[in-house]
Amino acid sequence: MSQTDKKSAAKDRITALSEQINYHNHLYYQEDRTEISDFEFDQLLEELIALETEFPEFLKEDSPSQRVGGTITKDFETVEHRYKMLSLGNTYSEEELKAFDERVAKGLGHRNYSYFCELKFDGVAISLVYENGKLVRAVTRGDGYKGDNVTANIKTIRNIPLTVIGEDIPDSFEVRGEIFLPRKEFDRINQERAQNEEALLANPRNAASGTVKMQDSSIVAKRRLNCYFYQLLGEDLQVSQHDEAIHLLEKWGFNVSPTYQKCQDVTEVLQYIELWREKRFELPLETDGVVLKINSYDQREELGFTAKIPRWAIAYKYQAESAETELLSITYQVGRTGAITPVAQLKPVSLAGTTVKRASLHNANEILRLDLHEGDFVFVEKGGEIIPKITGVSLDKRRSDTKPISYITECPECGTSLIRNEGEAKHYCPNAQTCPPQALGRIEHFTHKRAMDIDTMGTERIRALIEQHLIVSPADIYELPEKKEQLLGLEVNSDQYTKSSEGYLFVSLKKALYAITKTIPLAQIDNFLAENEGVEQRELLEKFENYVRKAKKNIAYNVPVIWRLKDALQNSSFDHIEDYLPVPVVLAVIFKKPAEDFRTICRKENTVHDIMLKYEGNVDGAQTEQINRIKGNTFQEGVVSNMVKGIEESKKQPFEKVLFALGIRNIGENTAQLLAKHFKSIEKLKAASPEELLEINGIGETLVTSLQAFFQDEENNRTIERLKNHGLRFEIEEKEQKLESRSLEGMKILASGKLNHFKRDEIIEVVQSHGGTYVKSVSKSLDFIIEGEDMGPSKKEKAEKLGVKLISEQEFMDLIS
Ligand SMILES: NC(=O)c1ccc[n+]([C@@H]2O[C@H](COP(=O)([O-])OP(=O)(O)OC[C@H]3O[C@@H](n4cnc5c(N)ncnc54)[C@H](O)[C@@H]3O)[C@@H](O)[C@H]2O)c1
Ligand SMILES: [Zn+2]
Question: Per the database record, which ranges form the BRCT domain (predicted)?
Fold first, then answer.
């Protein structure tokens, strides 16, 4: 290549890299998500810096190599930093770390310096400004020069000192640290989100960053953020070394992670790095490396800064562990809202101490982005995420004849054509009424403690009833008592099943091996599988054969059975899912027939019980026994009568609970109560005009639309009719309407903060039983607010602004007594 060609190629590459880096910076800092790993990101940046160094004429002032990646948002007040908040240089290798040390030695002209090592906490940088001992401002890093004023949010973090007391506190100083979401808290939030079928938070860092930038401080307060501090800045600080500053921070009550260590030279630094490589996973938060800083402030000054980073510090980043493995197939999960999530089924591979067999793929876009083909070899990585993710495809290993993965078009649970709304990443199954996971969501809501309260129908049981076509609509529940006979013997536990993308039923390897073999107890099979966790299926079956021979477990019968299983697997074209076997293959072994014979009856069925109902061939006694061993637990007499009792009991639930149980969109518990009290019967509610509805405080347009849509659907009206015939209450009983007093008549009231004498729900009832109306948000129309402990500052401010009176809990009690 000629010099000019090389130059123009470099120029193009610089432009392309800058664009890419800006794009990923935007995702990372503005949208709190990532599409590539930090390592990949840092490689792009490194390549850019190398090119810009070789061709300085192409270095632009606004190049991402010259700027801190974050920006300021328009949602918060912008504040200028007194001291710039810089980024850190980073490296992933020991050589580069040593090279850094050489640069330091050269810069200072001697080796008489020490390092201070800290872990690199993976959160969000924050600057706290204190004046006269009081926290006056908390600002994000932003673009390094200016950041967002997020003081109200930061004040909700419990261990951040709002006031610093002690001797010699400087009039003004600044403290910097990292806000983070503790791993435990992150897990808790995600568990809650999973239960509510909300999108999961991807990793603790993004979650912390998103939380700090929330507009509502009361939500921030609910997420227990925490903070570690690692820097003190100011004019007349009586310290000349970083370790002294850290000790001062500790003394003043700032949360400092006790993981720091002073190191005399780079060898000690490397030991520190090794010490924490694994141990850091025991810490309560995510860390992604080590930061080493020159301890002496004078020496720091001598070394100075580049445009973006200090020359006296560097971050050593631990590389996320990555592994390569084969993509076996893709399965699709259907959520309770109908959302489809693809899951990559992988050949087991060991990664960061665990065996990985599955990776999340999020949605169809992710599959396109990765350009996944059938049978690809993929790279999996376990970063801060809970579920491993696929970071790329090994193109060298791709066979020439493979097809790109084609996304499913039908729901694997019910066969309905999937839809995808414009602008949304996920596909949905629109069959809300009868698609099993969606029906499950509706019925779980119906039986919930706060609705019909049928606690004898837990999720597993409901799922079993739906999957075996005994219920789809809530009204079907009340017909179960007449079907006692059918209930006995139904399969309950369906965790043992899964489905392939084509809708074929798969059963766990454990159950399958148990069913096809003789005289090997389930517990022993379980043990065998646990000991061979991570062994790929084909090899696993070899091992199982050896196990049978060695343990002398009916070799004459069992070994040929294992051969038949291997043959049947080899000759069938079903997807491959680790830990599971296709049911047609298992049936083929049991009935000594080709798996093809079972193909059709095993599609779109949820249990072996159902499949056998469709099977027309002969079944002898031994085979029946084998089939029964595949099945999960079954409904027994005690369970059935218990369930029936719970169902009968639920008929006594008051109208407001029934109304809530119907699951009308946007109608929560309180609204149901409000509507029930106001209209007193479902007929009157149904007949109400939009105007009538809107007159009720707390009822808005959205609710009116939801109600109309609900009653327009004939299916819903049929359900109501059926429920009525079963004796459920669709009107208020006289005694429910009795009032305790009229002392709050006509008043609109809200309680905020924690009350000492009433629970959340109780206060609503108390207000209503004295003739008042409980209102959920602060507005001008309120008569007063009962101020509890820790009432949110933003709510209080709003109330004051609107001139709404605040009264204490005691004053309220006086009012009603
Ligand atoms: N994957 C992506 O798409 C993507 C995109 C942009 C950035 N990134 C990653 O994010 C990082 C962005 O770099 P950056 O500019 O935010 O700098 P940085 O995160 O690499 O380093 C500076 C920051 O480290 C933090 N830090 C944590 N512990 C510290 C300690 N003990 N002492 C001092 N500082 C500490 C501070 O918040 C400081 O602002 C890079 O590592 C990059 O890989 C990834
Ligand atoms: Zn469906």
Answer: 739-817
